[in-house]
Amino acid sequence: MAVKAIILLALAHLTTAHFGIEYPTWRANTLLANTTYSQWVYPCAGVPSNLTDSPRTDWPIAGGSVKLDLHHKWTYVYLNLGLGSQVTNFNYSLTPEFWNVTGNGTLCVPKLSLPADLTPADGTNATIQVVTSGASGSALYNCADITFRTGASALSSGECATDAGITYVPIKQQTTNSSATTTTPKGNGAATAGVNLAALSVAMGMAVLFA
């Protein structure tokens, strides 16, 4: 009886510890019970980039929406981007100030801007990598393949709805002796707070090094 209870608790932990990508469409559903994929595996939960039936979403050429299904009560979120059809190097950050998300459920950000030095041409293939880290400090991974299109649009306000009680705060680096600050919000329900990133990276099990 005790063994059964422990197994059930472990399974419950594994279920709640994971996350999904609702938009752009993720490469594969890594939450399925019968899947061989694991969100613990870098860079894309073990899902190969050459799947024949893998979806690829048209995404605005100047940046678009991202919609996540988060299962933790709080989560650190990083979004990275790599160019190409079979990406191995996610060398662009879409969240130079990564997010501290409070609440579990659906988080939708209407528009993520691209880095200033990235100007993809129409038809350029790319992959968005989403990395999360929760209370355990271990990183989880999922990927969504996209094609940059001049005619693509961000999600509408009706499509890009965040569940009640969920907020995200972009984290801004600060010096050790400075205090946390709040500046102009960067998105719906978002503010910017200061943090010592060196100390935080240790607390997150150095997940940022693999993002």
UniProtKB/TrEMBL annotation:
- Localisation per UniProt entry: Cell membrane
Q: How would you describe this protein's topology in the membrane?
A: Lipid-anchor; GPI-anchor
Sorted UniProt keywords: Cell membrane, Glycoprotein, GPI-anchor, Lipoprotein, Membrane, Signal
Q: Principal localization?
A: membrane
Name the InterPro entries for this protein.
BIM1-like (IPR046936), BIM1-like_dom (IPR046530)
Residue intervals of the Copper acquisition factor BIM1-like domain: 17-162
Q: Where is the signal peptide?
A: 1-17
Q: What top-level branch of life does the organism fall under?
A: Eukaryota
Pfam families to which the protein is assigned, alphabetical: BIM1-like_dom
The entry's cellular-component GO terms read: plasma membrane; side of membrane
State the name under which the record lists this protein.
Answer: Copper acquisition factor BIM1-like domain-containing protein
User: From what organism does this protein derive?
Assistant: Cercophora scortea
Specify the taxonomic lineage. Eukaryota, Fungi, Dikarya, Ascomycota, Pezizomycotina
